[in-house]
Amino acid sequence: MMEKPIFIVGHKNPDTDSICSAICYAQLKNQLTNSTRYVPKRAGEINQETKYILDRFDVKEPEYLDDVSPQVRDIDIREEPRVTDNISLKKAWYIMKSMDVVTLPIVEKDSLKGLITISDIANSYMEIYDNSIIAKAKTPYINIIETLDGELITGDSDHIYDSGKVFVAAANPELLEEYITPGDLVLLGNRYETQLCAIEMGAACLVVCEGAKVSLTIQKIASEHHCTVISTPHDTYMAARLMNQSMPIRYFMRSDDLITFSPDSLVDDIKHTMASVRHRDFPVISKNGKYLGMISRRNLLGMERKKVILVDHNERTQAVDGISEADILEIIDHHRLGSLETMSPVFFRNQPLGCTGTIIYQMYQEAGLEIPKKVAALLCSAIISDTLMFRSPTCTVLDQKAAEDMAKIANIDITELATGMFTAGSDFSHKTDEEIFYQDYKQFSGVHQFSVGQISSMSREELQNIKGRLMSYMDKIYDMKNDDMIFFMLTNVLDTSSELLYYGNGAEHLVNQAFGVTGQDHCAYVKGLVSRKKQLVPELMNAMNEN
């Protein structure tokens, strides 16, 4: 089985740093190893600023990863032998026995037609009172020949036996005339008179037992009467016992109301289904209907959790859904330590820098690898974005140096790039209030649970146009959210300030206590406030702890 990739993913509602760091760190990891494949992912929709960057530098947007909970695709899907629906019960039994399986999938052109189990085969032997079941099952003559280890004397092995009953000709010819009817399949011995009588009474097939010779005369008469003749080395008793095993499995397979799973089905969901039915094996079907294999309860024991590396966050509330069920290998971040727990020790690199991209720049240097031009462009963009072009208090000397180094490698002008980025990011004319609110939105837990959104712009007019829309939206959704308080930063990049919108019981008092400003109508102007990570969240938490 091919080794599964390791996903590198940022936080929900990803910003430029989250997306660019995932892409660049995947590039670094893939340069360092050939044995494992690292794939960048995104945990939400990218914003306009990030889209501008990816388009400008011709970088493919990472695919969306909504959940890292274990799925059926993380289980060892067994490739059990596939069979067609016309093989005999006997052949199906021997396949199951040789492969040590209890279920066979009946597949035609990669599509699942049905299932047959050992239990189904066992039940077929209970049809002992129906001597016409061979015909009802529309049994191919080739199945009868193979099951009886026989030889076709006359007739066509491709034809189907579909009318009449199975009859053992143990009586003398005079009595047989009373029992044999047209279309019957007759088991008999080497007596010429009996064979001739069966043919003349309209038997569809003669099974001559114990390898007895069939005279040329009988062969000729049988051909003239369109009667198939089969010779078997078995005696009459054994041939009669084996006859039911010749029936095609389609007559006994289950094809209606099959319980199937898709590779995307969550393991937690299928556990309940598996526990509620007595089936042992369950087929896995792709979205386009292709049969992929079988799984059972036993396979759940060997389930492989998804392997992930987190960048630009370490808070559970900001992580992709299902993170508690994933195998976290690394965390690369520049935020405060959050609520995320891991099942085993991980590589955790957390530095007090303005951007995760700066850490990845350092890791490239430490590995002694040349930074590709596109990687340099993305890292430079991430630093510009997270530090508001070095205006944020989170920005360090290392951040600025890293951005300048990357700009040289990528041959870009920082001011020109920043202007293009922030202009693209502050174009909210085509966005809904909801899209703007959740563009860069994070939840935090402390004394109170609260959330903070933020948008940045180089235009005061743009921010004022958005302000009224967001205040109405926040007023509408506050009662529907689980947060005690919600905040939103309207950050002006040029004059390094923010209008702080707030809703919630005690939110206004908290803002006043944290920043020494008086708010009005759910809004407060805070000069110098541009960083959610270093300025807003720490001050709010300190104020909460003091209350």
Brief summary of the model shown:
By secondary structure, the protein is α/β, with parallel strands linked by helices.
CATH fold-level assignment of the largest domain: inorganic pyrophosphatase (n-terminal core)
Average pLDDT, all residues: 91
Largest sheet: 6 strands, parallel
Overall SS class: alpha/beta
Low-confidence stretches: none
CATH top level class name of the largest domain? Alpha Beta
| Count of helical regions | 20
Q: Looking across the biggest beta sheet, what order are the strands in?
A: 3-2-1-15-16-17
Describe the structure.
The chain is 37% helix and 20% strand. Strand 19, helix 18 (460-477) and strand 20 form a beta-alpha-beta unit. Helix 13 (356-367) packs antiparallel against helix 14 (373-386) and helix 19 (507-515) crosses helix 20. It is α/β, with parallel strands linked by helices. It has 4 domains: 6-70 and 306-425, inorganic pyrophosphatase (n-terminal core) (Alpha-Beta Complex), CATH 3.90.1640.10; 73-123 and 251-301, CBS-domain (Roll); 138-246, Udp-n-acetylmuramoylalanyl-d-glutamate--2,6- Diaminopimelate Ligase, Chain: A, domain 1; 433-546, Roll (Diaminopimelate Epimerase, Chain A, domain 1). It contains 20 helices and 22 strands. The mean pLDDT is 91. The longest helix is centred in the C-terminal third of the chain and has 18 residues, at 460-477.
SSE map:
Elements: E1 6-9, H1 16-32, E2 38-42, H2 48-56, E3 63-64, H3 89-99, E4 103-108, E5 111-117, H4 118-124, H5 133-136, E6 139-140, H6 141-147, E7 151-154, E8 160-161, E9 166-168, H7 173-179, E10 185-188, H8 192-200, E11 205-208, H9 216-224, E12 228-231, H10 236-243, H11 267-276, E13 281-285, E14 291-296, H12 297-301, E15 307-311, E16 327-333, E17 347-350, H13 356-367, H14 373-386, H15 397-410, H16 414-425, H17 433-437, E18 441-445, E19 449-457, H18 460-477, E20 485-492, E21 497-504, H19 507-515, E22 523-527, H20 532-546
Parallel strand pairs: 1-2, 1-15, 2-3, 9-10, 10-11, 11-12, 15-16, 16-17, 19-20
Antiparallel strand pairs: 4-5, 6-8, 7-12, 13-14, 18-19, 20-21, 21-22
